[in-house]
Design goal:
Layout lengths: L3 H7 L14 H4 L5 H4 E6 L5 E8 L3 E4 L4 E4 L5 E3 L8 E5 L3 E6 L2 E10 L6 E8 L1 E3 L5 E2 L3 E8 L18 H4 L17 H4 L1 E8 L2 E7 L4 E4 L4 E6 L4 E2 L8 E5 L3 E7 L1 E9 L6 E8 L1 E3 L8 E8 L4 E4 L34 H15 L6 H13 L4 H31 L13 H18 L15 H4 L2 H16 L7 H10 L2 H24 L1 H4 L8 H8 L1 H43 L5 H22 L15 E2 L2 H9 L4 E6 L4 H11 L2 H10 L2 E6 L5 H9 L7 E5 L7 E2 L6 H12 L2
């Protein structure tokens, strides 16, 4: 199914039709239904070949790349590659470079039948086009479901009527009732999304949307604002769990079918007697059109306890795309082990503490070994120690600020992203393998970065001086991102929901916590004096500390194997050898001839090419095993177990998550844990987020988790799931499962 958002983008030029329906009367007479604008006939008279012929009306055009032909039953018929004529090359504002057709065109589709005696062939033919003069619109994709008699000429009209459609939805290509191979036409917006408002109490409202079958409402396209009186505002809506939905433009988002009720707290309403609240929302018809943003004014009488929904606060204006609507932030972060929202001061404190704990995580220790060497080297001078500490802190803060702005910015645009999600990208993993390998080789003395390359690459982290300190801080943040330390999860969750300035401060607090040990060493002479004095032994230590870098590269390579298989690992290993050779040759030929530089460049290009090949590899087909007694996570299986009254522990994990692996080693992979599962009758359900998975991302978002690990225990008798701490102990898990198993 093509994303409804993409359809909305294609409708951008024609969404002005929705501004006011009465004003459409004249334009409606000028536009044809989609099946008349692009009249399709077929010919299956020649066995083994189907011909599809479109007669395109004047002033209309059809997209070549939007023609999709598929067998209704792939087991009954195998289609060959359709043969389409070349089209006119144009640049589309939304689709980029495209080919379009005018006039008449014909596509030839070869096929092979599984049953040689079959008399018919069933096809699904999808196409899409536009009206290129005023009123300029683009139709949504239209699908014809065709059953053709093999060996007999057939000309199948795709519409039975030539009269213009009766409403704007049909003008935009929505199927009309009675059209062959189509569904009923879309409902008016007021009927498709019936909106109500109720007063729960003096301090809260209840908003309700009711949708017919196949209509859904976007969660993140809903905005609520109190317009009067001054001093009253709408608090964070208490959204229930919804349905995971993937849009090509929005990414992974949450939608609601049938009916959704939304409690909205009112802040500062203790003395108010009446309110005016503006509510805007947006939804779509599945496999159909995406409605423009709808706006309603809710007039609330708090004294009487009533609320009435008026007409739109203003005439709905067309939008170029649904993406232009500012999304509602997700719910704020949750305090560890509870449901209370985290406040700003608490979030800053948790972020500082979480960043400090990151220093103890295995994913950060290899990089900290670099800093240990430079701090020891600075032992002769307090000024040098302060300089190292400040530049390292600057690198950490800048990296956290950039990472925070990217993550919060992507979420503000409506895309789903969680902490550590970059480790789901094989290309990012491959780059980090190279970085760790290069840093290790530099520490081993294979090469040293000279001035000409001093501004690039991983070697910056191995340099002495300000640039080395700065980029060591940057590298520490990069490798720290798959770790979710205690306390930091709630802080990041709060940042995702907070305004941009607040989110920025929280990410800076995380960075300050990570850099704090070195700031103490640099600025507290008594602590610095505890460090050993510099000496010749430091070169040996520096070379020894290269081996944790190599081990980190091995770990990253293992993660890559899980994501893209052995072929990806072989490519990165080969690329790593080329990179090592390039760095070795660079170290030998510094200041050498141009030929030596060219040879180094060729080797580096070979290493980069290996990474690019990894980027194009598909995910391997894996067979799920249950050696640890777990069952794979799926929403349907979870619902089935809960309906049967079975306690469930859901574990969302990833191979690149160090905290997850530590918890498995300490608790979840032990005989005591397996005995606990058996004793309490709990089902252990596991979701693997090593690679991109929209279903698991929706579960994480449902529980306001910024990443993995996430542990949720569902009780035997029903009720809400309970989140466990990020770092597990056996006692914690035992208490939770025993409580969940009680009647």
């Amino acid at each position: 199914m093509m994303s409804v958002v993409r359809r909305a983008l294609l409708l951008a030029a024609g969404l002005g039709l929705f501004a006011t329906l009465p004003a459409l009367a004249q334009d409606e007479q000028e536009l044809l239904p989609v099946t008349q604008a692009f009249h399709l006939t077929t010919d299956a008279s020649q066995p083994g070949t189907v011909k599809l012929h479109w007669r395109i009306a004047p002033d209309y055009y059809l997209y070549r790349g939007r023609i999709k032909i598929a067998a209704a039953d792939p087991a009954a018929v195998k289609l060959g590659e359709p043969k389409l004529p070349a089209g006119l090359k144009e640049h589309d504002e939304y689709l980029g470079d495209v080919e379009i057709y005018h006039g008449d065109i014909e596509a030839t589709v070869p096929y092979t039948l599984a049953d040689a005696g079959a008399k018919t062939i069933a096809l699904n033919v999808q196409y899409q086009g536009c009206h290129e003069v005023e009123p300029k619109i683009c139709y949504p994709p239209n699908t014809e479901h065709l059953t053709l008699a093999i060996g007999a000429p057939s000309t199948i009209p795709t519409t039975a009527a030539a009269t213009p459609p009766a409403n704007a939805a049909a003008l935009l290509g929505a199927p009309t009732a009675g059209t062959q191979g189509s569904e009923a036409q879309p409902l008016p917006a007021e009927q498709a999304f019936r909106f109500e408002a109720l007063v729960k109490d003096h301090g809260s409202l209840l908003l309700r949307w009711t949708m017919p079958k196949d209509y859904y409402l976007y969660r993140d396209k809903t905005q609520i604002a109190v317009v009067s009186p001054a001093g009253v505002s709408a608090g964070e809506p208490e959204w229930p769990s919804g349905t995971a939905h993937h849009d090509e433009h929005f990414g992974d988002t949450i939608v609601y079918f049938d009916q959704v009720e939304l409690p909205v707290p009112l802040e500062g309403a203790a003395k108010a007697t009446s309110l005016a609240v503006d509510v805007s929302y947006q939804g779509c018809l599945e496999n159909g059109i995406c409605y423009p943003v709808m706006k309603r004014r809710v007039n609330v009488d708090l004294a009487a306890g009533t609320a009435s929904v008026g007409s739109a606060t203003e005439t709905p204006q067309p939008t170029a795309a649904p993406a232009e609507v500012a999304p509602t932030p997700p719910p704020p972060g949750m305090a560890p082990g509870g449901d209370a929202p985290v406040g700003f001061i608490a979030a800053i404190g948790l972020a500082l503490l979480g960043g400090l704990v990151l220093n103890l995580m295995p994913c950060v220790l290899p990089v900290l070994s670099l800093k240990a060497v430079t701090v020891l080297e600075s032992g002769e001078s307090h000024a040098a120690a302060r300089r190292h500490a400040l530049w390292y802190t600057a690198g950490v803060l800048v990296a956290f600020a950039v990472l925070g702005l990217i993550i919060v910015g992507i979420r503000a645009a409506g895309h789903g992203i969680q902490w550590g999600a970059q480790f789901q990208q094989p290309l990012a993993i491959g780059v980090l393998v190279y970085v760790m390998l290069a840093v290790g080789l530099s520490m081993s003395g294979v090469f040293e970065i000279g001035g000409s390359l001093g501004g690039v690459g991983s070697g910056l982290a191995a340099r002495s001086g300000r640039s080395g300190d700065f980029f060591t801080g940057v590298l520490a943040v990069v490798v720290a991102s798959p770790c979710t330390a205690p306390f930091m999860g709630s802080a990041i969750a709060f940042a995702f929901a907070a305004p941009l300035t607040v989110a920025f401060l929280i990410f800076l607090a995380l960075g300050l916590g990570l850099a704090l040990p070195f700031l103490v060493i640099g600025f507290v002479p008594a602590v610095a004096r505890l460090l050993p004095r510099p000496g010749r032994w430091m070169e040996t230590l520096k070379q020894a500390l290269a081996f944790p870098m190599y081990l980190t590269a091995v770990w990253l390579l293992w993660v890559l194997t899980k994501q893209r298989g052995a072929d990806a690992a072989a490519l990165v290993l080969a690329g790593g050898v080329l990179l090592a050779m390039a760095l070795w040759w660079y170290g030998r030929s510094r200041g050498g001839r141009a030929l030596s530089w060219a040879f180094t460049g060729v080797l580096a290009i070979g290493a980069a090419a290996a990474l690019w090949m990894v980027h194009g590899l598909p995910a391997p087909q894996t067979v799920t095993t249950a050696a640890d007694g777990s069952v794979p996570y799926s929403p349907a299986k979870l619902a089935e177990l809960r309906a049967a009254g079975t306690p469930v522990l859901v574990d969302m994990t990833a191979d690149w998550c160090i905290t997850c692996k530590a918890n498995e080693h300490a608790v979840l992979d032990t005989d005591a844990f397996r005995a606990l599962l058996k004793r309490t009758g709990t089902v252990y359900m596991k979701g693997d987020w090593t690679d991109v998975n929209a279903t698991i991302a929706a579960f994480l978002e449902q529980y306001h988790s910024v990443g993995v690990p996430l542990y949720v225990v569902y009780p035997k008798g029903g009720g809400e799931g309970t989140k466990l701490s990020t770092v597990l102990t056996y006692d914690t898990v035992e208490k939770a499962l025993e409580a969940a198993a009680r009647p």
